[in-house]
């Protein structure tokens, strides 16, 4: 079972319009409303691959109740931890021409004491966990160190941790010894202040991260250890909705790493991440992949480079 913490869950709304135009009245062609936040998208992709997951969700207010009900309706196992305030809504506007536009609300104000039951929920699940995934933003105003107990407890219990965090929470995840930190290129540069990817990755490794996986969009994905950089190219010529592609890539990475824990093959893990990320672009909403395409992309020979 894989434990997935979504620190700032959301009612994820996707509006499809003919063409995104700033400063005009836009008629919405179709609406999708799904439980989201990056971690829930990871859990949904893992579940679609038949992997047992257990989500930990700090939820508040009527929209929190909606998320809990929608998660249950999707057949996902979850522990909903009540927090003050109202679970946020995110709105993504997509058309057939431009990149999606995402509006993300900040999320509720969660005081430090309200995080303690979340810590307890994570701790209770660790004895039966193969991996812990911490994915997505924290509610605005929550301290970065909120992630520390989840990761430190999992590491102490010998559980593989994949942290897809940004900003100070990415540094806190590395400090807590996350097995894998998975920022994208921009998040890595922003959190570490290093313009060079290798320097940024080494900064996280120095702080305590085991491996740093950097997603590079159309330029593929790379894994940095102290001694090598393994690089895999992106799947070429895939068009569609890239919202949630990074979350699907995280799911692919976790899937590959938990299948091969004794001796993780980084190239295979990166190829799985790239294939899942590309397969998510083919689906209209985040949290889904085109499974047939994902498995086809996986068997396509992709160039892998490894440098010492
Ligand atoms: O959890 P966050 O990091 O705030 O990101 C949330 C948003 O990003 C997406 O997960 C896409 O990656 C959306 O589904 C939306 O929920």
From TrEMBL:
Top EC class per UniProt? transferase
- Indicate what this protein is called per its UniProt record: Tagatose 6-phosphate kinase
- Per the UniProt record, one Pfam family is PfkB
Please state which protein family the record places this protein in.
Belongs to the carbohydrate kinase PfkB family.
Q: Which domain of life is it from?
A: Bacteria
- EC number(s): the record gives 2.7.1.144
All copies of domain Carbohydrate kinase PfkB, residue ranges: 15-287
Give the matching Gene3D superfamilies.
3.40.1190.20
User: Which keywords does this chain's UniProt record carry?
Assistant: ATP-binding, Kinase, Nucleotide-binding, Transferase
Q: Which organism is it from?
A: Curtobacterium salicis
Gene Ontology MF term list:
tagatose-6-phosphate kinase activity
